[in-house]
Write a structure and sequence with these properties.
CATH architecture of the largest domain: 3-Layer(aba) Sandwich
Order of helices and strands: EHEHEHEHEHEEHEHHHH
Largest sheet: 8 strands, mixed
Structural class: alpha/beta
Shape: globular
Strand content: 15-25%
Low-confidence stretches: none
Distance between the termini: 63 Å
CATH superfamily of the largest domain: NAD(P)-binding Rossmann-like Domain
Mean pLDDT: 96
Radius of gyration: 19 Å
């Protein structure tokens, strides 16, 4: 199987490293270090060439997904399955449907892990699959492949995904960014609870500000979560005045 990957950021590199063990992996990005691509088992190719892959995975920021969809539209074959890995699902899948040829199959995915949490192994990590117009047989094959590599597959609609992720991932990142803004660090006089709180920093400190901003901007349920968080925090602070 030939797999194409557009985007060679932290998640793109993780994808190349793991998929190259089973597939021929072609990689495209505007700025590529060919030696690094090859060291992970991939091959650097042009945009037109990567779009010839049977499976095309878009490892790009949420805010870039529409432009990428427009760029690849003339080159993508009707036999190609296009997948994205965005941490928001409604927005990117809408843009892919809008700009890609209607015959192209689309599968939304969200790996619930990253280069840090999956550095040693993917076993036990979660991944969400959001079906669009992908045929049932191909969907089952992909699901089975992921499960055979130890991943826990969760099937959900794009809206179900975004609603839950606003209350889990985006909330966690919001609290983590707040701790960073407060310059929260380990202290000699602390508690186990405080040390656990600082663990949140480990999940967000290596992620970009762009990711945090994009999740909040493009997830339709993020604003509701922020309003609820702000209201609850104000209620708590008012109670101790």
């Amino acid at each position: 199987m030939r797999v194409g990957i557009i985007g060679f950021g932290r998640l793109g590199k993780l994808a190349v490293k793991n998929l190259s063990q089973d597939s021929t992996v072609c990689v495209y990005d505007i700025n590529l270090d060919n030696s690094e691509v090859e060291s992970l088992g991939g091959t650097s190719v042009s945009l037109e060439e990567v779009c010839k892959s049977k499976i095309l995975i878009l490892c790009v920021p949420i805010s870039s997904i529409e432009n990428i969809a427009k760029e690849i539209s003339p080159f993508v074959s009707i036999d190609t399955l296009v997948m994205d890995v965005c941490s928001v699902k409604v927005y990117p899948m809408d843009k892919l449907r809008k700009h890609l040829p209607k015959e192209v199959e689309i599968l939304g995915t969200h790996p619930m892990f990253g280069p840090d949490s999956a550095a040693k192994s993917l076993y036990g990590c979660k991944i969400v699959l959001c079906k669009d117009n992908v045929c049932e047989e191909k969907f089952k094959n992909i699901k089975g492949y992921l499960e055979s590599h130890g991943l826990k597959v969760i099937v959900a609609t794009a809206h179900e995904h975004d609603k839950q992720i606003a209350q889990s991932l985006i909330l966690t990142h919001t609290i983590g960014r707040t701790l960073m803004d407060m310059n929260s660090t380990s202290m000699e006089i602390d508690t186990k609870g405080y040390r656990r709180l600082l663990k949140i920093l480990e999940t967000v400190e290596n992620d970009s500000v762009q990711l945090f901003e994009d999740m909040n901007k493009y997830n339709p349920y993020a604003k509701e979560m922020r309003t609820s968080l702000s209201s609850s925090l104000n209620n708590i602070l008012e109670s101790v005045k």
